[in-house]
């Protein structure tokens, strides 16, 4: 499956290339890219396979891919940077800048609650169309009057899609820009949250393996069998918090209208090189003041996630190593970032000055035995 691997890796990081090549040889990847920086220096920039299995289009050096929830780290950084620029405290009530939100028991909600998945608004109360999802003002108007599923600040549950419009509203109300517009201006010109035209046409087409390869295993790493069973049941129940949070709005990420919609929790389209460069700049203090970043990556919540049903952990918008972000031991101590559905990962590490991004187009799942990103991250750390 796929084709040969192109690009380069520093000789000290040749294991990364070997691991990457193996994922094509054994069929785990269709098309993918991986990039890494260490100490500000590029050490890995590899890509290979097929961007579109239907046409045979190859994955090339500048092929962008859909990164799903890797987007949340970009949106969080935009919000934190705006807070830094405006002097807005993340522990002040959201009502100070979004008065319409201060109803239905949400009056004391803070920006920190929005960024740590403690807002209690993980899903929309009614079906949302793809057209509505392209309008951040309309999405904010839907979220503002909702009653929270739990008292804000008292528990956490993954806001799979609403996270983007909640945190994004802070950016929009303070700058007049969407998250996508702000990110391209201030965080990286190739971080597309909303992509159209030729850039959309170049984007790798998302694919899924045969159903039998997606069957969840009871031997899913450090996740116990009972938790796996609960999650599998939740995925089969359209009324479960997990499905309500992750499947509305719904739309194929191969559709132009979804790619152009700029969904600020899941819509980032970029190259592995650009995503790794974002984490390089973030870890180096170029995007946020070092003190602010240090505060933002401190653990604020950890424990059983009311939506995902397993352990998750967050700083201010960044996911930390946990059952939902399984990392090899050397990275587990100091890394932060965000994974995306199907195997994408963006990761930074201030202590080791490491930045890594992995973007595949063949969706898999850790609970189905997918170790592609884990093995690549381990290979980078093995070379330090």
Characterise this structure.
Helix content is 34%, strand content 15%. The chain is α+β, with helices and mostly antiparallel strands and 384 residues long. The chain has a single domain (5-74, 183-382), classed as 3-Layer(aba) Sandwich (Beta-lactamase). Strand 8 and strand 9 (311-314) form a beta hairpin. Helix 1 packs antiparallel against helix 15 (372-382) and helix 2 (71-86) packs parallel to helix 6 (162-175). The longest helix is centred in the N-terminal third of the chain and has 16 residues, at 71-86. The protein is globular and about 55 Å long. Pfam families: Beta-lactamase. InterPro entries: Beta-lactam-related, Beta-lactam/transpept-like, Beta-lactamase/esterase. This is Esterase. Residues 17-374 form the Beta-lactamase-related domain.
Topology, please?
Elements: E1 5-9, H1 14-25, E2 31-38, E3 41-52, E4 57-58, E5 65-66, H2 71-86, H3 111-115, H4 130-133, H5 136-143, H6 162-175, H7 179-186, E6 192-193, H8 197-202, H9 225-236, H10 241-246, H11 256-261, E7 268-270, H12 272-283, H13 290-296, E8 301-304, E9 311-314, H14 329-332, E10 336-339, E11 345-349, E12 354-360, H15 372-382
Antiparallel strand pairs: 1-3, 2-3, 2-12, 3-4, 5-7, 6-7, 8-9, 10-11, 11-12
Helix pairs in contact: 1-15, 2-6, 2-7, 5-6
Main traits of this protein?
globular; 384 residues; alpha+beta; 3-stranded antiparallel β-sheet; 12 strands; Beta-lactamase; 7-stranded antiparallel β-sheet
